[in-house]
Amino acid sequence: MDALQQSLPETLASGTPATSGSSGNVANYMDQMAMAMGNLGTLDGFLRQADNLRQQTLQQMHRILTTRQSARALLAINDYFFRLRALSSLWPARPRE
């Protein structure tokens, strides 16, 4: 979420209002800002739902899986998160067009 908030200025950079203060540019900028904030809010809601589902799944894992299956699942989840963290640390350094 922090990375998304940091990328907001980059997203809006193409529509930054002119320093002359023309009302058309300011309105365009405000519209873009409102749309970007709405998109961030939608994404935040989606991520919260996904996290809630993840928590419920982990809490009910003992009912669904055997002990051995649970252990293997937790190891796979750990590997997935390790790879996801590695990818997310590389993402800001990617070449831009």
Automatic annotation (TrEMBL):
Q: Which InterPro entries match?
A: TGA_domain
Q: Which GO terms describe its cellular component?
A: nucleus
**Where is there biased composition of kind Low complexity?**
13-24
| Localization annotation | Nucleus
Organism superkingdom: Eukaryota
Give the PROSITE patterns listed for this entry.
DOG1
For the region Disordered, give the residue spans.
1-25
Any idea which UniProt keywords this protein has? Activator, DNA-binding, Nucleus, Transcription, Transcription regulation
The keyword DNA-binding appears for this protein: yes
Entry's Gene Ontology molecular function annotations: sequence-specific DNA binding
Please provide the Gene Ontology terms (biological process) for this protein. DNA-templated transcription
| Domain DOG1: from-to ranges | 1-94
Annotated signal sequence range:
none
Name this polypeptide is given: TGACG-sequence-specific DNA-binding protein 2.1
